[in-house]
Amino acid sequence: MTIYQNLIAGEWTGADAVENINPSDTKEVVGLYASGSAADTKNAIAAAKAAFPAWSRSGIWERHVILKKAGDEIMARKDELGALLAREEGKTLPEAIGETIRASQIFEFFAGEALRLAGEVVPSVRPNIGVEITREPLGVIGIITPWNFPIAIPAWKIAPALCYGNTVVFKPAELVPGCSWAIVDILNRAGLPKGVLNLVMGKGSVVGQTMLDSPDLAGITFTGSVGTGKRVAVSSIEHNRKIQLEMGGKNPMVILDDADLNVAVEAAANSAFFSTGQRCTASSRLIVTEGIHDRFVAAMTERLKSLNVDHALKTGTHIGPVVDERQLKTDIDYIEIGRQEGAKLAFGGELISRDTPGFYLQPTLFTEATNQMRISREEIFGPVASVIRVRDYDEALAVANDTPFGLSSGIATTSLKHATHFKRNAEAGMVMVNLPTAGVDFHVPFGGRKGSSYGSREQGKYAAEFFTVVKTAYTLA
The whole model's pTM is what? Predict the structure, then answer.
């Protein structure tokens, strides 16, 4: 089987490889992907550093053309790349194709942004002096991405990094190297100069740690666990390095008495269980007021019965497998913790057998939960959600905000008063009204508050805040 190699200084390299296993069918090896060493990582950083002076001064049309080519090819290959994504991560094929389209749109957006680079010319308070304010590339950027969005998250980090003239060392999650390799291959063939984009697949303890230890990375943009994010932050202080961290959530979906029940159930089901609940924006806390509580639980239970858990590529599958055995064990452990804490298992919680061996788990719904239970405080990152009963809107808002996280927050209501108040007072970076908490546009900022995020926002024009530095220049007329 062909080994998909790392890209370092414009050359494909690497003989040591690991198997990429399909979670829908653990007998299938998706491919063999290189596992980089510390030396490989250092070489990649050196290559990016050497390439930075020329790329940082490259023309905006050159950057535009390369990013546009990448976006066009991703879109043209959306079915192929979507199938690859579904095979390596377990997301259903429609979701995987949708994510691939989003990656294409991200590259298209930043291809346009490359042509919209601008500064300011302002008058000085002193006579005969002009002031120019411009943005310049940050430098060599380390990019570390998670496994749950294996093509969209790399896209929304790599595209702006290149758009604004930075060079990149990219480490994808070990579980999902396929989509990352494909993106790098597409960009490499689109005409990127050698060393501008370097791919080093491998273990976080080796590749990731070498990146953290390097004084030559001007910035690291990271999406992943809270624990690893804190390590990125601590290690970066020593090097005076700019950091951008996205670290998860325990997102609430509030259901008020006046909500349209069908809208509420669909928003909650999508938020909590689609993509197997493996989204940092997933709603695992369903906060429901007393007047609608019983009807909501009954309707939600019926909706869960209608969801088909099966092979990600199979037509009619609503929920694919959990990504791997380790995550499946985490999910099962939390289901047992919920039982021990006194929550009622209203639906699911059982392993499922299908035609192919895989990590299949029923969507799991707890009721009679409290906001102080571990299943309501800690991020599970699986198809597990808890219903928390509250008296009214005021208590619902208080419970929604009572969390160490603050990424996304949702409400189902027909009240303009409550919707408006919730948008203003929800302690989250993103708020959804009568919509799932998961699912955001590619051209607007993404990010949270509290323990969910640190640093400037991702995506849209706000990406410039991280990937550039501001320069102020004065000229005597």
Answer: 0.97
